[in-house]
Write a structure and sequence with these properties.
Elements: E1 36-38, E2 44-49, E3 55-59, E4 64-71, E5 74-78, E6 85-88, E7 91-94, E8 97-101, E9 104-113, E10 116-125, E11 131-136, H1 152-157, E12 161-165, H2 181-196, E13 201-211, H3 213-222, E14 230-234, H4 241-256, H5 262-276, H6 284-294, H7 307-312, H8 317-324, H9 338-342, E15 349-354, H10 363-374, E16 379-384, E17 392-396, E18 402-406, H11 408-423
Parallel strand pairs: 11-12, 11-13, 13-14, 14-15, 15-16
Antiparallel strand pairs: 1-2, 1-8, 2-3, 3-4, 4-5, 6-7, 7-8, 9-10, 10-12, 17-18
Helix pairs in contact: 2-3, 4-5, 5-6
Length: 425
């Protein structure tokens, strides 16, 4: 029998899994806290030895990532455009460019949220003056942000410090992994509380960079926490997880079956998600009837990654209730409505969406943000044609191999927006 595997990718909740830690560090001399570097012109870079074995260099000026790994003692790199790299005399030599550690300090910390210890890293410019700080929010990944997050170089360029922290159940933090927005928001609030009491932090500008899942977490916590002063909300959605699943399924359905009617298929998806994820057992008869209707017309494998494809088209109610529900994101409230909390906000928010986002489709969220701006909310909106989830773009090298990079216009927009925010203080 086919393995029961349910991947609710459309909720942007299952983005990445943590990797294996069986590797030899590429440059063991470089500490995990030493992740912001600079070239002779002052351009900042990120360089991180992450837990899956990659030593990653990120150049914010062009959005590129270069990955290096030791394979059987041999240094391998990707993509093919990655320059050579070596470490000597305290410098990273990236092709012809020498990188030296930037003038920042990294302070490891731990805080308590309820009975859970959360661990993180505060990266600040060297000196004694107070600086504004951005908390870099997790997406839905299970890997700890302190092991891979490259954002500190962006925020340092804007004159901000950065907090990276491993959300509960990831990295070095304690607790159980969860998608419970209320709990994750409370954890974020404890980080805000830590920053507000820190002698080097400018309490007038403590903000959250919400990415994917953490857009919901950031807006929820900011709606009830007056110490959150701004948000950068990137590639998340403003609707319910239920609505996001419908939109994601719609995109998959229309791509796979251009001659079929989404409006005709939509009631099946609504019944499936309601019965399966929302535990409305009164709708299983409807699911069974609609499954018979669509049998032979729609193949679950062509809608892989959706609840209707991996779930209701492929398995019966008994298995889905007994085993399938246990594979849904832990603690996720499928009916939580972020809009009510967003409408409470009266702080600056930069909303950024990729127009080609397949994981968290953005069209309805863009329309909602435009309406809030018309209503006078202190929000700004940026959209990026061709950008997929994470603001990733795809290019092809000379050998025809594709590689991904962050949209550099997005990066520079975030930096410019933060600089303007700081200048107003």
């Amino acid at each position: 029998m086919k393995k029961l595997t349910l991947l609710t990718v459309g909720t942007s909740m299952l983005a990445a899994c943590s990797g294996s830690s069986n590797y030899d560090p590429v440059f063991p001399e470089i500490k995990n806290t030493n992740r912001v570097w600079t070239d002779a012109s002052g351009q900042l870079y990120s360089a991180v030895q992450d837990t899956d074995g990659d030593f990653t260099v990120h150049d914010p000026s062009n959005g590129l990532f270069y990955y290096y790994r030791l394979e059987n003692g041999r240094l391998e790199s990707r993509p093919s455009i990655a320059p050579s790299i070596r470490y000597e005399n305290g410098k990273l030599i990236l092709g012809d460019t020498a990188l030296t550690p930037a003038e920042v300090t990294a302070e490891e910390f731990e805080i308590t949220s309820g009975d859970v210890i959360l661990k993180g890293m505060l990266i600040l410019p060297k000196g004694s003056g107070k600086v504004p700080v951005v908390i870099s929010g997790h997406g839905s990944e299970r890997s700890g942000a302190t092991n891979w997050d490259w954002a500190p170089a962006w925020y340092a360029e804007a004159g901000f410090g950065t907090v990276l922290f491993d959300k509960r159940g990831t990295g070095s933090s304690g607790g159980s992994f969860t998608h419970n927005f209320d709990q994750l928001g409370k954890d974020m609030g404890k980080v805000v509380e830590f920053l507000a009491a820190h002698p080097r932090v400018d309490k007038r500008l403590i903000g959250i960079a919400g990415n994917s899942q953490s857009v919901r977490i950031a807006t929820l916590e900011a709606s009830r926490n007056s110490e959150v002063d701004f948000i950068v909300a990137s590639f998340g959605t403003v609707g319910t997880a239920f609505e996001e699943e419908l939109q994601y399924t719609k995109n998959k359905f229309e791509a796979a079956y251009p001659d079929e009617s989404w409006e005709e298929f939509k009631p099946f998806v609504e019944a499936c998600v309601s019965a399966f994820a929302l535990h409305d057992d009164s709708r299983w008869d409807e699911v069974s009837a609609l499954k018979k209707k669509w049998k032979g017309r729609v193949d679950g494998d062509r809608l892989a990654g959706t609840q209707v494809g991996d779930g209701c088209l492929s398995w019966g109610p008994f298995l889905l209730k007994a085993f399938g529900r246990g594979q849904l994101p832990e603690g996720l409230d499928w009916s939580y409505e972020p809009k009510a909390d967003i409408e409470k906000l009266d702080i600056p928010v930069l909303w950024a969406f990729g127009e080609a986002d397949q994981t968290a489709p953005s069209a309805t969220s863009i329309a909602a943000v435009k309406a809030w701006i018309r209503d006078g909310k202190p929000f700004e909106l940026r959209t990026y044609p061709g950008a997929d989830h994470g603001m990733f773009m795809t290019a092809t090298d000379k050998d025809g191999k594709s590689y991904r990079f962050k949209n550099p216009v997005y990066i520079q927009d975030v930096i410019a927006w933060l600089k303007a925010l700081k200048a107003k203080q």
